Amino acid sequence: MAASDPIFSVKLTPDDVPGAKFWSPNVSEHSVCELKRWLACRGLPVGGLKDDLIKRCISCIEAGKSGEILLSIDGGTWFQKKALQVIDKMKETSSSSLSTAPFLPVTGWKIFPSGPIPKAFTYGVIYEHIIATARLMSTDGGDDDEFSAAFNTSKPMSKGRQFFLSGHVNDIQDIRKNDFYFLKAKVMPSYSQTSPYNVSVTLNMTTASVVDASCDCKASAMGRCNHVAALLFALEDFTVQFGFEGLACTSDVCKWNVGRKKKKNPKPAHELRYNWL
Prior knowledge:
This protein is α+β, with helices and mostly antiparallel strands. The chain is 34% helix and 12% strand. Strands 1-2-3-4-5 form a 5-stranded antiparallel sheet. Strand 4 and strand 5 form a beta hairpin.
């Protein structure tokens, strides 16, 4: 590099990372999930009860260190994103070209994983879609205060992960088209094992941001229900275990995301026996 070449100093701010900025000046108003994310963005411990998390956050703020964001948060995804913006000077152009969500493809779907997955996809992307942007949408809802008060952004995160870990996410398929990555699956609701919801998400192949999401359930008006979160957590789990290139075709039986085992032994009615009290 020549001596005359400009040297860029890139630092992350709370506005650069989803969850690194509180939505209320009162720290205690935030959920445990939000408090832990705020602390993690600064490289601080996330263990303990809610009172411990609140004290830790307040201590950081009072020490004047709340603006020091960990560059390696979410594997350095947000640092790399900002570095590209600083160097290329194309933030407005890229955001406008990547904001339009295409229609969900009708044909061409393959069993997941059929190929490369957006390499920028991390837990932070899930947090940004389920909590950060949902919080903005709920506060911009105008006079619908009842909806804003009832909308708990932490619930889809905890419920979604629980659904995935419990084997509710099945029949995952994906497809790549132009600059987008499409993913869909059948997700079992918490109260039924026979009527799954059709869930789909659309990610940008470059930024991995969620540009669209949908579900059949009544709570998916904003595309941020428990079932959408479950599918996103399934994708995250796969990338953590196997990376972003997908699995090579082998003769091994698939052991990832195996559905729940139903404890049932169907028999003809005349063979059934009951234990009467």
